[in-house]
Design a protein that fits this description.
DNA-binding transcriptional regulator NtrC; 4 domains; Helicase, Ruva Protein, domain 3; globular; 12% strand; five-stranded parallel sheet; Rossmann fold; 21 helices; ATP-binding; alpha/beta; nitrogen fixation
Length: 484
């Protein structure tokens, strides 16, 4: 049901004022438009109006400077902020300054009307206090693409809560940066941020790492040790690569999330915990659930607010901004400032970036360190990208048809394979069938590359020569030796 009210529209662009005036009027609202902040403030200070829609940059005052005054004078007046400066910090500044919602330009008119209706229907949310400009500029979330705008707006909303967030995305997309942003601009910023990578810890030590252990709890436990939950008390605990967590540790984590307390390894006294959980994964957890490798109940506990980070190839329009940002970083570290030619940038935008933003940053650092010229040419970019592809080809299916690393391509293939059986499961013996399908083409490729020289092929594969001979016989590979 639509709620009608008096809406103030402030924008320096006459075309936008006209469009909003017509659309809001058709929706039944009483609309007043202005091109300057002074008039808007006069209307607000007089106690008039039910909602404000304003651009950030006005000819006489920035909306971020005016928002605290509006908030103080009219704390219940919702303000929707629009901006063409489509950065993460614009969304955060809008949220922290007291805006009800942030919309990047160009905006979707239907979405704006829905936000207006919601703002007039709901009580205004409390906002956290704003921080200084220098602190705001420190967050390295870069990009103005539509997908990144959606992420910025979701992050701005999540700053006001302690909800558990599940961040998914390929390696190198910036999952830890998102977790740090949620912490450093959220309600727990005064507490510690503690990260733990499940894939980097031996399975038998994960519970001790998470919950700590008592002296004598196991061989080598000579002293009491606190775990990551205790270290993160009052702050944020970032559980990276959660899909690699062993099942027994998943069970203990679920109990902590359900009961809000845990015991150390070897301990008996329950310890209350107060942390915000942000989890991240580059795996499909639903597939792991189907395979019996991840607890479904834990998934739903962690997946309260799902957030997917797009791979760089899905937001290639952000590459110029990212390149400038990384060159600025290396210049601050003492390397010479550089720029990339327009043709070079276009070449980079067409590249698949299997390593995502992390790969792009490494390339920029290499360009800054190895090339003395101020402008990096298209030829240099082509050479570097081709060099990047060569090692990738040893561990990926070429840059396969879609440019994915081999592991990701196999995982995608297997997900489709499992889906093809619907609710049923594939025939038993899948593990060995998959290994057999990979092993034969791998050995065949090595034998082809070495022209049938089994000594060289064995060295290339890292196998014993007799083992290779046995594999060749078992797999029925025909060996053709190159003529002398």
């Amino acid at each position: 049901m639509s709620v009608r009210g008096t809406v103030f529209v402030a924008d320096d662009d006459a075309a936008i004022r006209t469009v909003l005036n017509q659309a809001l009027s058709r929706a039944g609202h009483d609309v007043r438009v202005t091109s300057n902040a002074a008039t808007l403030w006069r209307w607000v200070a007089a106690g008039e109006g039910d909602l404000v829609v304003t651009d950030v940059v006005m000819p006489d005052e920035n909306a971020f400077d005016m928002l605290p005054r509006i908030r103080k004078a009219r704390p219940d007046l919702p303000v929707i902020v629009m901006s063409a400066q489509n950065t993460f910090m614009t969304a955060i500044r809008a949220s922290e300054a007291g805006a009800y919602e942030y919309l990047p330009k160009p905006f979707d008119l239907t979405e704006l009307l829905a936000i207006v209706n919601r703002a007039l229907s709901e009580p205004r949310r409390p906002k956290i206090e704003a921080r200084g400009e220098d602190q705001m500029e420190a967050m390295p979330l870069i990009g103005r693409s539509a997908t990144m705008q959606d992420i910025y707006r979701m992050l701005a909303r999540m700053m006001q809560t302690d909800l558990t967030v599940m961040v998914s995305g390929e390696s190198g997309t910036g999952k830890e940066l998102v977790a740090r942003a949620l912490h450093e601009y959220g309600r727990r910023r005064g507490g510690p941020f503690v990260a733990i990578n499940m894939a980097a810890i031996p399975r038998d030590l994960i519970e001790s790492e998470l919950f700590g252990h008592e002296k004598g709890a196991f061989t080598g436990a000579h002293n009491r040790s606190i775990g990551r939950f205790e270290q993160a008390e009052g702050g944020t605990l970032f559980l990276d690569e959660i899909g690699d967590m062993p099942m027994e540790a998943q069970t203990r984590l679920l109990r902590v999330l359900q009961q809000g307390e845990y015991t150390t390894v070897g301990g008996r006294t329950p310890i209350r915990t107060d942390v915000r959980i942000v989890a991240a994964t580059n795996k499909d957890l639903r597939t792991l659930i189907d395979q019996g490798l991840f607890r479904e109940d834990l998934f739903y506990r962690l997946n309260v607010v799902p957030m997917r980070l797009p791979p760089l190839r899905e937001r290639s329009e952000d590459i110029p901004d990212l390149v400038r940002h990384f060159f600025k970083l290396v210049a601050n570290e003492g390397l010479q400032a550089k720029h990339i030619s327009a043709a070079g940038i276009e070449l980079m935008k067409a590249y698949a970036w299997p390593g995502n933003v992390r790969e792009l940053e490494n390339l920029v650092r290499r360009l800054a360190a190895l090339y003395p010229q101020d402008e990096i040419t298209e030829e240099i970019i082509r050479t570097e990208l081709q060099a990047s592809d060569r090692p990738a080809a040893a561990v990926s299916a070429g840059p396969a048809a879609d440019g994915l690393p081999l592991g990701q391509a196999v995982e995608n293939h297997l997900q489709g394979y499992f889906r093809s059986f619907g609710e049923a499961l594939p025939p038993a013996g899948l593990y060995q069938r998959v290994l057999d399908e990979v092993e034969r083409p791998l050995i065949l490729a090595a034998m082809t590359a070495t022209r049938g020289n089994q000594i060289k092929a064995a060295e290339l594969l890292g196998l014993n020569r007799n083992t290779l001979r046995k594999k060749v016989r078992e797999l029925g590979i025909s060996v053709y030796k190159a003529p002398r």
